[in-house]
Amino acid sequence: MRPKKIKDLQARSKKLMVRIMDPLEPDDPYVMIVNSGTNPYLSRVVTIKFGRDGTISARCTCQWAQHGGMGCTHVIAALSKLAARKKRALSFWLTPEEAQRQKQHLLRLSDGRTENIWITSRQPA
Question: What are the tens digits of pLDDT across the range 26-47?
Fold first, then answer.
């Protein structure tokens, strides 16, 4: 299930600290430790795998993700941190129409079923 207020999550994700562990092999996923926004002593583990077709698969250890949710603040923070490494900024959208209106590079965060979150990538201002 997708979040309903993606822009709120995107704003909250900017406050989270992310530590990246690079993959050992080219096809291995990225593993990231993301601090919790609600408990300073708690961290979440996020894994991200990039498909060759621009599809992104992500998993998180938070309760939202454990109950079938996708695109939590931890995943958004992790993706944004990876993008910042390449000097890119991401925006997250619930429909492909919203994302396509941005006229930017388009990616898709997929849950492997039918739901997607659309991501645009741009050079930061």
Answer: 889 999 999 998 888 999 999 9
3-class SS shares of the chain: helix, strand, coil, % to 5: 25, 35, 40
The domains of the chain are located at 6-122
The number of CA neighbours under 13 Å toward the Cβ of 112 is 7
The string of pLDDT tens digits covering residues 92-124 is: 999 999 999 999 999 999 987 778 999 999 998
> What radius of gyration, in Å, describes the C-alpha atoms of the chain?
14
Residues 47 and 30 sit within 8 Å (Cβ to Cβ): yes
